[in-house]
## 1
Amino acid sequence: MKLADYTSDDRYFDFDPNSGHFSRVKLSSPRKDCSNFSGMAQLLRSPREGSVLVASYVANEEAWISIGVEKWKLFDESLVIKHRETWGGFICELSIFKEDRCTKKFTYFRIDWFLLVDPTYDQLDFSLAHLPVDFVRSELTSLQKQREDFIQMWMGKTPN
């Protein structure tokens, strides 16, 4: 499956959702939209795991997130996803909880650390630089509506 590169319009990831294996591929021309992709991915550097592909995508009409070779249904009601900054904002942490138990804690280096001194930098800028921030669900919209919107965005249709 093809996943758009979150940090580059010139590249995409050829991704196998079953194994988590991927390759980064250069496009012949910059991407103008995401209509030919199944989701979005970003290669992040983890102090413990090295370079890790983090992705959100649609497969078999279901929304998924993956961190390396592990994957979860993005809108599973039993999951709670939290994202926070540590070490003065230089390191970020994505945690996935199931039934109040942390099943995954992924720590990665902040990409845009040099912007921490910019007084105009805000949460939107942070989200635009780091794909995992978008894994945290909104409480303003129902989980079902978020799922439908996500799948429609990547498949161009409403899920069954």
## 2
Amino acid sequence: MARIEPGVGRVTVLPLLHTWPDRYGVLTYTTSGAFGDTAIVGYIPIVEIPDMPLMVIAAQHQPTRLYGSAGGARFAEACWLMCVGWSGRLIRKPGTLELPDAAWSLEVDGTTELGKTMYGHDRLHVGRFTLDDPELMAHARAVLPTRHRAMANA
């Protein structure tokens, strides 16, 4: 059984084109722990779209070219995911949903201890993200336009 990480706080929800040219999903970014030392990057489950294996998606973007390989296993992938979430919060693109105070839970697929602080974080949890409020969850799913859902089934 997967570990569940609960939390309450600011959540950024954004559409993500993760595999060119037509594989989209909905990514979430938030933090937990003392002073936000743990980054939480998840995906919103959408029935028509396959689950997003976040560390695999990150690896496909060759993050070691940017972050190197000296940080250990999954370090570069973790940094890439944190950068996507953090920069999605900092520079919002159209359609991004910003929730200032939302209760959530993450079904943890994996945790990466970074060994040093990156983007203000010492570790990353990734997995399936759920907002406790069903209405907010519906808004989060709506971040992904219908046309991108249709492409996932083509």
## 3
Amino acid sequence: MNRLFIALFFLFSSTCIKAQYVSINAVLDRLEENRGINKNLGKINLDGRKFILIKDFEDHTERNFLVLNGNLATYIEVFDDKATGQTSSNVFSGDIVRSKNQIISFRGNRLEGETIPIALTKTFLLTQQKKILYLIDINTKERWIDEGAINKK
């Protein structure tokens, strides 16, 4: 009789522990989704996507665009001077390398069509939050948003 009670106690305990693990796993999945990490985004096609970063300062505004086309990319910097109203831009073109995990590396070795001696490099982490794609700059932690998400709103 004691063995039966002990066996039932262990069976009931293991069922309760399993239920707790399931609920903890659900909470962790929700937290990871909120942060946009630990997702397999390798199957998302980035061809033709444009990512945007806008930085506003007291004296000027910077608008940065990254246009991805296959293994090639174009990085555009636009500077708007608030005092004079003048706009200047730099257009870098180069290639990207996308690893199996969500890392994207951009190497801009051409400025305005001319080869430059030291290439501009940027490394991004591809994330997705609430079905919106973001690129997070590994070095500066700046978040670039997919232009398609802005135009839908």
## 4
Amino acid sequence: MQKIIKLTFVILTFSFLGGCASTLKPTELQSVKTVGIINQFPDTPNFVTIGTTIFNNEYAQINDPNFSKLLTDTVVKRLENKGFQARLIDEAQRPNFDMIIELIPRDVYATPGTYGYGVNQRSAFGNAMQANTYMALNIAPYIEGKKKCSACYLQKLMPINIEELPATWNELSDADKQHVSEVLNKNIELSINEILMQTGL
């Protein structure tokens, strides 16, 4: 029964990836040479287990800033490969760039305890479901102050091979931390490249 619950959960989550209602056109990008990236994601990913009641819920963080750096670095690398000059900026630097890209964290559809990126596992009546890494975001490109992509949303869940997560990241073994990190890094890179491709970048 537990395996059936896990399999069903994986199928449902992988089927909801999102998309863009409109994309950037090549003509809109002709005048763009410099791109400023505003990363609105939390500095560290979430590490959350959700139980049958609120008394069984545990909310923690993965205390490693490298995941946020990878998110931004993946955007920069893709844009540089497309011929743009790109870097992370703050709000005050907006006027200095031809295009701005905002990375906006979102919740995973119908999944409590998710925001932006991280690790999540749900359980029901003591039965642990599939543990996953996740990415959920909107991307908002602006050219000359005007938003150029509407409803650009993506969510992606990738399973991790841990039967039942502890309450906090620090309670994982070193081997399990490495495994989770590898899967989450892969999820970040794949998600960023996929949503940028969907927007026309």
